[in-house]
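Task 17 of the worksheet. Students: predict the tertiary structure of the chain below and write it out as structure tokens. Keep your answer in the requested format; marks are given for formatting as well as content.
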Amino acid sequence: MGAADIGLKRMSWPALVSVVVPTFRRVERLPTLLARLSVIDQACDLDVIIIDQTPGADLSTLQGFSEHFACLRFISLAQANVSRARNIGAKAASCDILLFLDDDMELERSYIPRVLSLMREMPLDVFGAVWPGQGVIGRADGGPLAGRGDDPLIFLPTCALAMHRRDFLAAGGFDERLDRNFEDAEFSHRLKQQGLRLVRHPDLQAQHHDRQENGTWYSRSLMEAAARLMRQTAYFRRKTGRGWPDVLLALLRVIVSETRRPGYLRGGTNLTRAAALGVSLPAALIYAARSPLLAHAPSSSGRAG
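Model answer:
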């Protein structure tokens, strides 16, 4: 996979939570991220794993943060793929509890003891955070997310997602075919199929300092971005149980919406965006027929109880 472990500090005492952070072309954010993590309660119980996908990044200046955590490791990944980065981080984790975190998140001071308590009380739940200004996704009152169990649009974003490692493995991990978009929604879909509840809990407060730059927003060209968006849309719809007519309709909607009011594509004119998306449609349908690329074969028994 082109991954190389360049750990700065090995485990000096047992950790309780493995924090998995993928990052891509955002090296400048890492000192702020680690500084924020270092001052929260039970920071010394964290196994922090940064999976960096930035070519030629120099992370040696971050060694000083290692004193705050049970372990601080950096893994270099040669090719950017957010799902693969999370899978590699989860495999390297030393703890049963995983906390997937984006590089622009800031946890409320008592986040770790609270998530540990909640996971002891509700072992069949997967937890997401609540932050100011977040759009409503299901319930934020401590109950399970609302909506049909098979609705792939009811999901927990992976910017702050806590779960047991055993459940991660049972679900198969993230699908590496979804390397930039929809990977959290598709993963949540499989978690629900395993019998797990998705919960946004008001005790888990965080701040999402979202800046839509670099990371999954980084694209070399309009054509590359259009092709990737069409592939990811088609694959996601197909792998969450949608038929081919629905997949085709979803792609046509993407073409219309991104042509008129682009949300993902950067630059270009209405005509060039429409052309780039339209040319990408046949390849997107072919891509949607591919088999999943998971970290592990998912369990067929689930964990419903």
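Marker's comment: The longest helix spans residues 270-288. The domain at 17-208 is CATH 3.90.550.10 (Spore Coat Polysaccharide Biosynthesis Protein SpsA; Chain A).
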